[in-house]
Structure formats: C-alpha cells, structure tokens
Amino acid sequence: MSAKTLKTALDWVHQQFESADLYYGHGTDNAWDEAVCLILFIMGLQQTSGDEVLAKSVSEQQWSEIERLTHERIQTRKPLPYLIHHAWFAGLEFYVDERVLIPRSPLAELIEQQFQPWVGPNKVHRILDLCTGGGCIAIACAHYLPNSQVDASDISAPALEVAKQNIDQHHLQDRVHIIESDLFENIKNRYDIVISNPPYVDAEDMADLPKEYHHEPTGLALAAGHDGLDIVNRMLEQAKCYLNPGGVLIVEVGNSAAALSERYPELPFTWLEFSRGGDGVFLLGYDELL
After folding, report:
1. 8 A C-beta contact, residue 16 and residue 70
2. Nearest to 135 by CA among 181, 89, 98, 91
3. pLDDT per residue over 226-256, tens digit each?
4. Which domains does the chain have, with CATH numbers?
5. How distant, in Å, are the alpha carbons of 190, 224, 241 from that of 86?
6. Percentage of the chain modeled with pLDDT above 90
7. How many other C-beta atoms can be found within 10 angstroms of the C-beta atom of residue 85?
8. Contact assessment for residue 209 and residue 233, using Cβ atoms and an 8 Å cutoff
9. Per-residue exposure over 176-192, b if at least 16 CB sit within 10 Å of its own CB, e if not
10. Tens digits of per-residue pLDDT, 40-65?
11. How far apart are CA 2 and CA 73, in angstroms?
C-alpha cells in the first residue's frame, strides 16, 4: 500500500464532504476548510499551518481516524467541533460538547481589539458574560484584558460544567468566576462591560435550521420566542442596574436585529461592524440605557 500524505487525505476528505448534504456554520463555511480543520487536528498540527505540511506522511492509525470522523460527520450531521471536542474562538482553543453551543460569534474580533474604540482597555476592571455557555467569551475577555475580573453566568448547570473545564484549561480560575443564574437573578456586582451572545433565534428561523444545529442545546441556547427577543427584552429592562457609569452593554442578536430596532425605536442602538464578517451586534452605553 502506497504511503498516504496529508495532501492525499485532504483531497479525499474534501471530496467526501463535497458529495454529502452537509451544512457548514460551526467554525467553517465550506467543505475544504472543514476538511483542513479535521485533518490538521488529527495530525496534531496547528490550524495556522501552511502548504509546508502537505507532504507529511499520514500513519495508518491517523488515516483510520480520519476515515472514521469523515463518515461520522456525514452520517450523523453532527458539527465537526462536537466530533473532535475542540473549537477555536478569538485565537484560543476550547473544549466543546453537546451541552454548549459551538462558539462562532463575531464578538471575537471585538474582544481581540480589547473593545476599542468603544471602551478604553485601562478602564475595564470587571466584565460580565451573560449566557456564557462553555465560557469562551468570558475566557477570551480575561485573556485580552489581563487586568480584568470576569463573571461567567448561565442558567444551565451542564453548560457551566463545560465552562469550568475551559477555565481550568486556560488556568484562569483566579480571574473568571462562574455564576449559575437566570440572567441577572443571582448577579450582585456592577460592571464596566456586560457582554452577551444570548438565545436570539425566532420561531421562523428555528423551523428552518439545518440538521447540524439540532445537535446543539436549541431549547436553552438558541430559541427565543416568536420574534427572537424573549431574552434580550429582559436584558434591556435590567442591564442599567448592573452597569457602572460609563459602562457598556454589548449583545449579539443576529437576524433579530430588525425586530429589536422596531420594538425599541427610542433606543439609540450602535450597530457594530466587523472586518471579518458578521452583524447583528449592538452596543448601548450606561446613559443611553437610563
């Protein structure tokens, strides 16, 4: 049997994915990038690897694992990060399983920029990540703003188990603190930034979700009523009580952005733009919430 190279494996996986009825939306947006992600992970190589790795030999054990995961991805329609229990967000690596959403928010770009120009990084001492899920946003905030303390809150105890695992993995136990809470119910502090990627999918979009999304905890983490605003409405009512003067509320609402603007015409939402793509993220300052 001739030796297989990484390029051979990549071409094979790409062809398998292209021939299948797959949806890409959990870290990649096409069959080629998904194939690259799978193979580099199995080979133990960095996701930023270049063409220099294409000639690397693939062992029989690695080939067997590549075949297994490729077939499982196609047959189950599970998103790849659930199959490899690995996801990337804001340049950082995280453990994921079906207790939490797979991170894919454009908020990563804002966090990497330390929330500039909207907030001065030196003025950020305490951050709240509402609906933290697996803790990716909270951990990224702590990583890029090393002088901050971060509270990571979620209503789901199973999700917070994953968040704790990620906090331990990144050695941030002293700076990222888990709070089990239904939004602000058990929150006691005030914050310079309240950030959230909450459930915001409306009933119509829920009915049309590809099969891949139904492996996620859709009831708690995606669905948000007929207009997608059930959770965000509560945030807007309460957030001002948990922000410091000069603080900001930053929330991703995705396709529910139009419904939100229509519902609150008096609120001066700032809709953020991202160079790497993504939209539906608003910012409101403390004074604007008052």
Report:
1. yes
2. 89
3. 666 888 999 999 999 999 999 999 999 988 8
4. 4-84 (1.10.8), 105-289 (3.40.50.150)
5. 33, 26, 36
6. 80
7. 13
8. no
9. bebbebebbeebeeebb
10. 999 999 888 888 899 999 999 999 99
11. 26
